[in-house]
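Submission checklist for the structure archive. All mandatory fields must be present; incomplete records are returned to the submitter.

[x] Identifier: Stp1/IreP family PP2C-type Ser/Thr phosphatase
[x] Organism: Bacillus salipaludis
[x] Residue count: 250
[x] Sequence attached
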Amino acid sequence: MKAVFQTDRGKVRLHNEDAGGILINQDGNRLAIVADGMGGHRAGDVASEMTLTQLKNEWEASGGVLTAGDAENWLKDQITKVNSLVLEHATTHTECDGMGTTIVAAITTDRFATIANIGDSRGYLLNESGFKQITEDHSLVNELVRTGQISKEDAEHHPRKNVLLRALGTEKTVEMDIKTIIFEEGDVLLLCSDGLSNKVNETEMMEILLSENNLDQKAGSLISLANEYGGEDNITLAIIEFSDVSEGDV
């Protein structure tokens, strides 16, 4: 397994409110996280950093994630716990009122990958079948697409594109999508904030991931392209590649 995480402020925002990383637990399994914070007075970075810190502490102390069921239960339990912590902080600190964060997180082993998401940070899978988005955006525009009210093309330029229907830390209870996929040698998992997916299309993502560059170079190319196309938002991504080559492993 090889993996890389990169984040960039972009060309317009004064601060980076995204957070994330690739964490290894006692069993050698990886947890990749991308969280895109939101809220006024820079509270977005508080929400995303709280999410990362809590999950990091729990993951590094954890062991025994042996099955897909274990992974799904771990993500559900820990993200639910983070939701309560972020909400409590927002309600007890006036400067953080209304803050929240998206999250897409993946536990990867040499047999499977389990992905959880809330909001519009995305997960993509590149395998022998091609390149496709494997998470569902929890956004107003995606709901309009899903119910046939607008086309996918219309959604790209919709004025309410950034309106989320779900976020972490904004309600007492939160629904998340969790799924497990077979993760085989040669497969690549990409997690990213909408700072990437709103700017770089799937064909461009796939071409970069299929290039001969190493993972660091691929991540840098994706971020550079998002910035080239305007870079109005923070850009954060994690790439995990199932490979039997140990050189450069993270």
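[x] Structure attached
Curator remark: The chain is about 30% helix and 25% strand. The longest strand covers residues 30-38.
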